[in-house]
Design goal:
Radius of gyration: 15 Å
Largest sheet: 5 strands, mixed
Distance between the termini: 7 Å
Shape: globular
CATH architecture: 2-Layer Sandwich
Number of domains: 1
Number of strands: 5
Order of helices and strands: HEEEHEE
Structural class: alpha+beta
Helix content: 10-25%
Strand order of the largest sheet: 1-2-3-5-4
Number of helices: 2
């Protein structure tokens, strides 16, 4: 988790695990992240290395390629392979860009 927190600090947007409390949401862009899964490498009845799935969600008021590129460049700098998807959330009037990847525990 320490490496993930370092990456989030490098990106430079406000961030929270899972969500911000009601009334404490910062100005956009901001990030919410979660550990979504675990993928251990094991043999001989023992876990040698555990990999955590991470979902990093970037929220913006509008399509914001500059904010997306900021996230991408930091992930690239840390050699993180990710998949990306995006959607417009009409009920919340914001964009969500979702980066999914795995990191060593």
């Amino acid at each position: 988790m320490d490496k993930l927190l370092q990456i989030l600090k490098e990106i430079g947007f406000d961030y929270a695990y899972s969500h911000f409390e009601k009334g404490e949401e910062p100005a956009r862009p901001y990030i919410c992240f979660m550990n979504s899964s675990s993928s251990p490498f094991s043999a001989d009845g023992r876990i040698y290395q555990d990999y955590n799935g991470v979902d990093l969600e970037l929220y913006t008021d509008r399509k914001d390629p500059e904010a997306e590129n900021k996230v991408r460049s930091v992930l690239d700098r840390h050699s993180i392979v990710y998949s990306r998807s995006e959607s417009w959330l009409p009920e919340e009037e914001r964009y969500q860009v979702w980066f999914s990847f795995e990191m060593e525990d």
